[in-house]
Amino acid sequence: MKIFLNELSLDGQFCNQEDFENKIKKISEILWYFRGYNVLIYASSLLWNRMALRKNNLSQSLNMIRDRDIRSLFLGLVAKSTFWEDEKIHKKESLYYYEDQKITGFTPAEAAERIYSKQEKCSLISFEGAMELNFSEKECEIIRKIGDRNTDIKIIVFNITNKLHAREWYDSNIKSNNWDDFLNKTTLRCSNLRFLPKIKRDLKSIIHSAELADTFLKELIKLNDRLFQLINKKEFDSTSLEEYMQKAGLDVGDESESTKSNRKLMKIRTFSLPDGREIEFPLHIKIKHKNQHPRIHFFIEEIENNNIIWIGYIGKHLPTSSRKK
């Protein structure tokens, strides 16, 4: 899957620096959404010289942002992009039109040609409010002209301008991939965690939307980036585990004594590690998603010089002594 930053959606439409910065935040949110998935980001070498404000191009406008976090986040995400001109598919002599204007040599034409000739899954990411060409709709109709008008080809390119569109594109493309691939991408991003083989089955049964998948991934990233570092410091004390969880920004619970004393309830929280050991996983991350309360059950194995976080279960809230279903 490939997403293309659309330079034609920048034509000096922002009235002031504040308006520009708000839109930069919005684009950064969209790019951040795809972080951790197998999505390649492409941009044109023309992007940085496109006008953002009436007197300043994108590069100049970014340098005027006082909040370094806003600027750094956007630049950090876009820095991972590739110039599509380096592997260009559409030809200069080909004619591509959008809203009756020729766009040959620009990003929407390249994305359209990749969809048409290579059947690649591509989408645009556009700034809203462009004055010359309207890129506010989630579907853009690109016309590829060949000879006479009777042979014109209409190519629909999905266009992302907000997070809702990003989720919709995710649902129709990334989410439709097999779950082996999804889990591979998750484990690649969360390389400090150890996932039990059964997790693939858990994911199939619980994740039915991009929003929920995103929620799970964010919590796993906290485990991977924050908690893993904390529990591998020399001063780590397992008796103060709750304090470490709070530092990591995790809403973690432990099972009640009544649940722990119930063999049947603990059996469904017991999972086999790859070496054959049967381990109870009472610790869990509490997740709130609409009217659901899914859980991520994990186990910290204390090993000299290298503590390990095992992920044993991702799914619906398991039964407890006070909650039977």
Task: Walk me through the topology.
Elements: E1 2-5, H1 17-33, E2 40-43, H2 58-63, H3 68-78, E3 82-83, E4 95-98, E5 101-102, H4 107-118, E6 122-125, E7 139-145, E8 153-160, H5 163-172, H6 179-189, E9 193-195, H7 199-206, H8 210-231, H9 241-247, E10 252-253, H10 257-260, H11 263-267, E11 270-272, E12 278-280, E13 284-286, E14 295-301, E15 308-315
Parallel strand pairs: 1-2, 1-6, 2-3, 6-8, 9-15
Antiparallel strand pairs: 4-5, 4-7, 7-8, 10-13, 11-12, 13-14, 14-15
How much helix is in the residues?
25-40%
Chain-averaged pLDDT: 86
Would you report the number of β strands?
15
The string of secondary-structure elements, in order, is EHEHHEEEHEEEHHEHHHEHHEEEEE
The tally of helices reads: 11
Side by side, the strands of the main sheet go: 3-2-1-6-8-7-4-5
Strand content: 15-25%
**Quaternary structure:** single chain
Count of structural domains: 2
The biggest beta sheet is recorded as:
8 strands, mixed
Query: What's the gyration radius in Å?
Result: 24 Å
Structural class, by secondary structure, is: alpha/beta
